[in-house]
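User: Predict the full complex structure for these chains.
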Amino acid sequence: MAIYDILFWVLSAIAVGCALGVILSRNPVNSVMFLIGTFFAISGHYILMNAQFLAIVNVIVYAGAIMVLFLFVIMLMNLNADVEPQKGQLVQLAGVISGGVFFLVILAAIKSARPEVIDKTSTDIGLITNLGKVLFTKYVLPFEISSVLFLSAMIGAVVIGKKEETHGAQKTEQ
Amino acid sequence: MQVNSTHYLFLSLLLFSIGIMGALMRRNAIIIFMCIELMLNAVNLLLVAFSKIYGDSDAQLFVFFIMVVAAAEVAVGLAIIVMMYRKVHSVDINILNRLKH
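Assistant: Here is the predicted structure of the two-chain assembly.
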C-alpha cells in the first residue's frame, strides 16, 4: 500500500467522521468545530492531489473566514446553550431515509463507472502560476462578474443586517 | 488497493448524503446552513479529483468560483438569520413555516 493510499483512507475517515459529528452534535459550537475538521481533511485531499493553491484558499476562506463568521453569529445570539428543540422522531427518521435513498440511487448509478487510474506523479497544474494564467485569460469575464456579485452581496448584507430605523420600528410595533 | 476515481466518487457521495441528511434532520437554521456548506465542499472535492485525473486546470477554477459564490451566500444568509433572530428571538425554522409574522 503506497503512502498515497494510506493518506487517502486516513483523510477520508477524518472527513466522514467529522461530517457525522456536524449533524449529530447537539451544541452548535461543536458542529462548527467538526465542520472545520472536515474542511481541514478536504484541504489535505487537495494537497494530496497537487492542488496546493486551492488547499490554502480552502483553509483561509472556509476554515478561517466563513466558519469564524458562523461562530460570531452563534456566540452573539448566545446559542451555544443546548436549547434547540428537536424534530419529532418520525421527521428525523424520514430525513435519514430520504438521504439514504438518495445515497443508494446515486451509488447504483456510479457503481458501474469505469475506474480512471490516478496518475500519482506530481504535476504543476494546481500551482498559482498556471491557475492565474487561465483565470486571467480564459475566465476573465466570470472573474469580473464575481467581483460584482461580491459587491452586491456586501451591500445586501449591510442593508439586511443593519438596525431598523424608526420607520421600520413603527411597522414592527403594529 | 489502488485509489482510483471511484473512491473519490464514493467519498464525495457520502459527504453529500450526510449534508442532505443534516439539512433534513435539524431545526436550527445555522446548522442547516452549515450542511449546505458541506454539500458544496463535497462537490469541490470531486471537481479537484477529476482535475487531477484528466490533468486539466479548468475544474480547479470552477472550485475557485464555487468558493467565491459560497462566501457571498454566507454573508447574505447569515445577515438574514441575524435579522430573523432579532424579530422572533429564535433560529428555529419551524417558526418560519408561514411568511407573515
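The radius of gyration of chain A is 22 Å.
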